[in-house]
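Box 3.1. Reading complex inputs
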Amino acid sequence: MLNAWEVASIVAVVAGVVGFFTVMRGSAFAAHAIPNGAFAGASGATLIGASTLLGLGVFALFGALAIGLLGRRGRQDVATALALVMMLGLGALFLSFSDQYAPAVYSLLFGEVLGISSNEIVPTAVLGVVCIAAIAAIYRPLMLSSVLPEVGEAHGIGRFRMEMLFLIILALATAMTVPVVGTLLIFSLMVGAPAAARSFTDRPLLAMALSVAFALAIVWIAIAASYETNYPVGFYVGTASAVAYTIGRLWAWWRNKTPADRTPMRPSQLPTAR
Amino acid sequence: MTSAPAESSPPVLDVRDVDVRLSGRTILDRVSFSIGAGEFTGLIGSNGAGKTTLFRVILGLQPTNAGDVLVEGRPRTKRGQPIGFVPQKFLLDPDLPLRARDLVGLGLDAQRLGAPRPSRARHALVDEMLEAVDARRFADTRVGRLSGGEQQRILIAHALIARPRLLLLDEPLANLDLRSAHEVVELLARITREQDIAVLISAHEINPLLGVMDRVVYLAEGRAATGTTDEVVRADVLSNLYGHHVDVLNVHGRVLIVAGAGEDTDLAGHEVAFPTSEIKRESAP
Amino acid sequence: MSFVLGAIFAPGFFTSEPVHIALAIGAVAAIVTGTVGVFTVARGQSFAGEAFGDIGTTGGSGAFLIGVGPLWGFVIGNLLAAGAMEAIGIQRARGRDLATGVVLGASIGLAALFLYLATTEQSTTGATVTILFGSVFTIASSTIPLVLALSAVVLGLMFTLYRPLLLATVSPEMAAARGIPVRLVGALYLVALALGAALAAITIGSLLGTALLVGPAASALRLTKRPLLAMATAAGIGIAAMWLGVVLAYDSYEWPPVGHGWPVSFFVVTIVFIGYLASGLPGRRRGGRDQTPAAATPAPRLPAGD
């Protein structure tokens, strides 16, 4: 149980931080696509008896690289959509070879309280630290490139380079989150928490911190509830993320109704000479 | 209004015989011009004339087939001297958790690793910049909630805070109403003078910039004509540039560029007058 | 000749009743999804197809839990979702925005709960796999009447709506000008899509069902621009994929690991994917670039007039 709490906390922090940029960059596609590939990887790893984390990581990275290299075209192609579904089919195939077909499918898709075995705690923690350190390092260029890519390029911040770096970080974050939350619920966690956070503050760093706080709350509630009721973690994650998001939306809506908070749309004054 | 470029120091921007060819088309054909400090220059050309390409060349994002670009006398490198840049289109999500002052602050050090350490000096610098573009009022508002004109001021502040010697703006007036356009032009002219920087602003309509520009670079058919407004915006120069007859009319201080009468077969024998400086060819090449 | 047949079809193929059912239902599902799918791709509503996959998962597992067949769950869940989409106005492909993603996530979470309860409280261990990845070999013959009824409804809808839907897809304004109730047509079409997705779900599972909806249709649209021909082609491709999938899945009982059999849905999805890639070849050979506005969002259009 101690394993679950520690690791889940790391997972939540990473999800909050990486999710913040996922929402900012509108990377909904990647956030759905990479877990599908990860599913196939984890299944394959189970089949050959390798570490699940390794399978997750390798396939997630491949997926991230593919998405990054295919660029805009790949994102909207039917071929990509079909390829992603094929990844799910492939994962089902691998798992069908084992006699743990249904339970394995279930825990990979929907997560598990004790998802991370004790011998994978350390690698997961390391992955988490790497993700957070990477985001901390490229925080500024990533911010600018995400918001105003052309201006970023004028600063010498390569847009493609930032996209690839971010996708790789997203892949690593996915790999460590899947065992706890499941591939189908990662999107909820990574999007619900930061989307809620941005309703509460205008400042980027504060929004990121809130995103982490919400993610921690969601994951802790999910694990505790799951432990108590035996219901799947994924159920609680999905519900809690939706609740968090709704609260955020309601707060934003309520605040926008208050006139004092509205952005004054007065015509700007002519600049005065200094 | 007109200031003689400083002859002793190298021009801030020196574009020399730049050729750019993409997918078999010549976008830029031996384009040459230079801009000195404190000069407000307009880059005029219709849509598709190559203005954005030229900007990308100057920023070092677009390789040339020939020619080079010197910024302050040295070739442009990606991480070299800062060049302020305000892009043409930017879509800011209204929910983006980024205040105006945060975006301006990023202009100081976006390429550095790590998170910005809060410091009084940094804060003061951001405030000063916001003041210079008259944006103090909405400094703490989310950038995505500001109007188009307000967002543009913030982007200008962002571009200027690193004290570049050169500021490029890609069609900043395109989506602004007349009053905001006028304000932006006044703001930029003032900044050019006060901070002694070189400003290059592209537009497809010349009239908002008349009377404020020191020099004009007129881009058509991939070629450029440079000089003062009086030197460039003339029938003979523009006809030469476009490759067919063009008339220039002065109407109450505004300029009308009109495709020629009679011998112009490119326009299928029609006489067409456009109230802007933009010329559209009826038959695509 | 019999040697070749014996090599392709594992023994007992032609006499096995589950196989007969699988082939029949698979073909019916392929016809329905091919027909509906062409419009889905043309209207750029592929996302709606995927959303039905998620909601279908919830519906199917819920039905499974209360002891009703998953098909009912798929149908009712999808119809409710279609109603919600219509109410919110998702007809004009809004795409994946945050709100829909979070809502779908919550519904998937609910599905997780249903499946858990089904597995533990009813000791049906295969629930997850059956719902998510399909089980065309284990479809009860009692389901067949419902399948046929649903197919008849969908095909009937598509036949009735064909011309107004075509015009509304090409240009909603033109359709409105002609007095066509564009919103109603779109809503009815969404119902057809919901039912088609349900049929896809019972054959290859709710998670993979979109492949059958979108894949053959997108391939067909690459090969021809004429709507009726595209629908026929899509149905043909779907049938081919389903039948080939059934054959391979049946044969695979003798492949390693022996006695297990590979999942049908895996074969079907892979064949559909390969088919899509192959459908791009004629275009390349002709020297032209990929001709498909229809294969890429946003809102690709069918040509007016057939």
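In summary: The radius of gyration of chain B is 20 Å.
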